[in-house]
Specification:
The protein has 299 residues and is an alpha/beta fold. It has three domains: 14-85 and 127-204, Rossmann fold (3-Layer(aba) Sandwich); 88-118; 210-294. It is built from 15 helices and nine strands. The protein has helices at residues 14-23, 30-42, 56-67, 82-85, 91-103, 111-118, 128-134, 151-163, 194-198, 210-220, 226-240, 250-262, 270-275, 277-280, 284-298; strands spanning 46-49, 70-75, 87-89, 124-126, 139-144, 165-168, 172-175, 181-186, 201-204. A five-stranded parallel beta sheet has the order 2-5-8-1-9, with helices on both faces. The longest helix is centred in the last third of the chain and has 15 residues, at 226-240. It is elongated, with a radius of gyration of 24 Å.
Length: 299
Amino acid sequence: MADTTAAPPRFASVPAVREALAQQKYLADEGIAGVVFLAERLQKPVLVEGPAGTGKTELAKSVAAMTGARLIRLQCYEGLDESKALYEWNYKKQLLRIQADQALDRASTSWDELESDIFSEEFLLTRPLLEAIRADEPVVLLIDEVDRVEVETEALLLEVLSDYQVSVPELGTVAAHQIPLVFLTSNNTRELSEALKRRCLYLHVDYPDLEREKEIVLTKVEGVTDHLADQVARIVRSIRQLELKKAPSVSETLDWARTLVLLGIETIDAEQAKETLHILLKYQTDIAKAAKELSVESA
C-alpha cells in the first residue's frame, strides 16, 4: 500500500456536501451527497453507473471545483492501453540523446550509464493515472466510461486503485503522496468485474424525478420561467416513458430549454414542441414517436 499522509476531512456532514455541490449548480440528492462524503472519509473510489447524460461526469467535475482540487481525466475507449493510461517513454528524445552521445564520440560512456540516463524522469511521459499518483496537490481523478475498456485494461486500473502506486521497471515503484478522490463512470454497456466493484463505493445515478429536473432547468438555464421549466420537465418525463432508441438525457433537456428561451417561447404548445424535438432526441424514429405522442396529448 502506498505510504500517504491523510489529509484533514473537507466536509463535516452529508448536508455540507450537498450544499457545496449546490453552490457549483450540481443538485445532488442525499444518496449522491452521502456517497461523496463517504468516498473522502473512507478513501475509496466511487463507481458511478447509470444512463448516459444523467450527470455522472459532471459530479466528478463539481467535486473537483467545490474542493479546489485538480481534475485529471482519463477518457476510456476500446483499445486504451498502458501507454495512454499510465506512462510511456519519449522514444524520439531518447534516440536523439543516443545520437548526440555518439556524435560527441563518448567512448568512455558505458551502456549502463547511457541506459540509466535515457530511462530517467527527463524522458518519462506521464499519462492520467500516473499523473494522479504523482501529484502533490489534492486531485480528483475521473476515469470516464470505464465500461468501454477491455478486461486487461480494467485489471490495470484495479492494480492502481488497490494500492495507489505504479511500478515503473526502470525507475521503481511510484507511490501516491496523497490519495486522490476517484470517480469511475459507466454507462453499463458491459458488466464490470467483481474485483473492481468490490474496491469501489457504488452509486447509481438515474434520470431525476419531475421536481428535481425542473429545479435543474431553473438552476442551469438563464432566463427560463418557472412555468416553462415545469412544462419542459413534464414533457421530457412523458417522452421518456416511450420505447425509444435513446431517451433524452438531462443535458439534452437543458439544451431544449435553452432553445425554447432563445426562441422567446414562454408556453409550449404541441406544434412548437414537435418543431424543436430534434434538439431533444437524436433518432428520427424517436422524433416520430414523440411527435405522435404530443399530437395525441394535445387532441
